[in-house]
Amino acid sequence: MMTPAKGRRTRIVLGEVARARRVNRTRRELAEQTEIGDALIKGLVRAQLALALRLALLVGLGLGTLPLLFTVAPALGGVKVVGVSLPWVLLGVLPYPFLVAVGWIYVRMSERNEREFTDLVEK
Amino acid sequence: MSNPWALPAIVLVTLVTLVIGVYGLRFARTTSDFLVASRSVSPTWNAAAIGGEYLSAASFLGVAGLVLSYGLDVLWYPIGFAAGYLALLLFVAGPLRRSGAFTLPDFCELRLGSRRLRRLVTAFVVFIGWLYLLPQLQGAGLTLRTVTGAPYWVGVLLVSAVVTGGVALGGMRSITFVQAFQYWLKLTALALPVAFLLLHWRADGAPALVEPKSPVGADWLLPGGGDHSGQGLFGTYSLLIATFLGTMGLPHVLVRFYTNPDGRAARRTTLGVLALVGVFYLFPTIYGLLGRIYTPGLAKPDSVVLVLPGAVVGNSGLGQFLGALVAAGAFAAFLSTSSGLLTSVAGVLSTDVLGRGSVRDFRLSALVGGLIPCGLALAVADLDVSRVVGLAFAVAAATFCPLLLLGIWWRGLTDIGAAAGMLSGGGAAAGAVILTVLGYAGHGWWAVLITQPAAWTVPLAFFVMITVSLATRRRIPTTVGRTLLRLHAPDALRL
């Protein structure tokens, strides 16, 4: 009477083992540097680097063009925003929230890249 | 203008720092104790600790002094000091933490497997560490002279002795709590007086920023100080490159990343540091601007933060209290940054130069590592604190920035390529720094290229590192795939 019950249980366990083996296979591809594993990790590295470079470019354009702007248009120095001269606001206050915002975007998006990669490997 | 509260405040900060450090040491006797304790540290605490170690004399005194002397253009210094953490976040924080390397020489050996390259990296770590320690000690001498009237050398020797003693005894090592405490102390010491200063400024009828008697005139408020030649623009960009790319190569910054549990926490910590440092940098500008109104002809501009409370609020009880508070904050800045730097310098000296990393070697190294910058600070007293720190960033940007960026993101890096790049770019930057510090910078374009070298030394270092690596392609380590997997695979996979 015990044997059929055992049989049913064994089937379910077998299914889990099969899935576990598939997980292990992708992990092993990564760990053993097979062609597939190598391509997977290269894709992740490329995605993270592209994200970082894009955001660095954003900062470069956002802050890096200011010295040039002041040189090309010195008249900006005379503009006032609520009683404070515009260059002082642009250099003394605004860069910091801007940098933190870019950093926040990076943390979110890089974590998303990693989550997608993890899902891909563990599926 | 001695302030009776200042000396007790300074002594108190020093004692509290030492006591917390020594008390903390009782809990953590071994390396693994440090690590276990570290793993329970949240990104918020860690960020405050890194911020506490990072905000040095250059940030606390130097930036306001530069604003007082040179006006708008020097606001690029604090922007660069903060933006450097963004570069660190984007390109280095996560992978470096996952590498498990504790110092730059460790990372180098792990990635490229060369002992000789490790020694070269060590030499640059020590050079940058000393260059960064120099202005901290100068700031200490200046602060003590300003608030108590003691000669310059007293402050230099005092901070050197406390820091060297503290590091040699191991009392300041890796105690996150001390550093986090220092951050909040520094922020309070700078922000609280600002509130009173601004109230007094309004009560005085909000006098205009430009006084007719100011020697530089209205141009001080304008970009380029009214000078629109290409030289100023080149200098600004060069400074931006140095600070944006140099922060990741500072020895005392990288060490602290090891206290994060994993790569994800390392990124969150870096974002926290960016926010904390950004909040801090809103204040020195205000000191510089108010200093322009109340203390325009200051002989030592770096002391503006220290003298302003007395000059604005008056030398009564409140003015003296605020003066003592900023003096205490300044000392917190010297102690925390110098301890972090000396720990890093002594760490690499003891494992790679003077011994094999025993506690005895470490103590000897701390002594040697502390004596040399102390001697230098006594010899050269007349440099702007922030400018010297800017030079340390320039050397870091031309050596460790390419090493880290290419090491983390490019498979093709070789040990010979890395050495050639660091020797050419870093050698050029170090030469330029030595000329500047000794006062042989020259005039005109030549002087701009020497005093702000990053704009040409950083591209040079990258170019040489990449071309030599391509030429020595056969030396790419066989373990590169495994190393990069370790650096970039998400923590959740636990590979």
General description of the model:
The complex is a heterodimer of chains A (123) and B (495). Chain A contains 4 helices and 2 strands. With 123 residues, chain A is mainly alpha-helical. Chain A has a two-stranded antiparallel ribbon with strand order 1-2. Chain B has 495 residues and is an all-alpha fold. Chain B is built from 22 helices and no strands. In chain B, helix 10 crosses helix 15. The interface between A and B is large, with 48 and 46 residues.
- The gross shape of chain A turns out to be elongated
* Rg measurement of chain B, Å: 22 Å
Helix content of chain A: over 70%
Helical element count of chain B?
A: 22
Q: Can you count the beta strands of chain A? A: 2
Q: How many beta-strand segments of chain B? A: 0
Give the mean pLDDT of chain A: 79
- Helix percent of chain B reads over 70%
Strand order in space, largest sheet of chain A: 1-2
Keywords summarizing the entry:
heterodimer, A: 123 residues, two-stranded antiparallel sheet, disordered N terminus, B: 495 residues, mainly alpha, globular
Summarize the structure in short.
Chain A has 123 residues and is mostly helical. Helix content of chain A is 84%, strand content 3%. Chain A has four helices and two strands, in the order H-H-E-E-H-H.
Q: How do the helices and strands line up, and which of them pair or pack?
A:
The complex is a heterodimer of chains A (123) and B (495).
Chain A: H1 2-31, H2 35-72, E1 80-81, E2 84-85, H3 86-92, H4 95-122
Antiparallel strand pairs in A: 1-2
Chain B: H1 6-27, H2 31-39, H3 43-54, H4 57-70, H5 76-91, H6 93-99, H7 104-112, H8 115-148, H9 152-169, H10 176-203, H11 230-246, H12 251-255, H13 263-280, H14 282-294, H15 304-313, H16 317-352, H17 359-379, H18 385-409, H19 415-438, H20 444-451, H21 454-471, H22 480-488
